[in-house]
Design goal:
Keywords: Hydrolase. The chain is α+β, with helices and mostly antiparallel strands. Helices cover 29% and strands 36% of the residues. A hairpin with a 3-residue loop joins strand 4 (71-82) and strand 5 (86-97).
Amino acid sequence: MEQKRVSETRCVRVSRVFPADVNNHNTMFGGKLMSQIDDIASISASKLCRVTAVTASTDSVDFLLPIRPTDSVSLESFVTWTGRTSMEVFVKVIKEDLRTGERNIAATSFLTFVGLDENNNPVEVPKIIPETEEERKLYETAGRRAEMRKARREESKKFADFLVTEYPWDR
């Protein structure tokens, strides 16, 4: 099976925070940031497998610091681990105070993607080769996250069987 270096999947996006991007607390909307996270992660996933990559799950989004209109926001994504047809993508969100230059991690996120062929069937994806200390740490800890992801998915399936699908007024 083909192998690729993590660096071949790395993407970076930097943007300003405008008034339309913030909520009533004058901080960036979480949903807007989540959309940007999914977007850039999908590009990293596609760069690995060079086929359509779809989001299988957003495993976590941890908002650590508020992002304000005086900040720029930088999203950095890369594939951290691969299974047979799935891949884990990490997104690091860095806010930079444009007045002082101070940079801080504002959020982190892990997502899982699956590569699909032209018939929407899962395809095998290349194995990933970590090179930097940060990449190796994320690669080495991916097994535990995969176990938690699998357990959470099974629990979600059981829970979904319990939920009703009728409209509230039809119950």
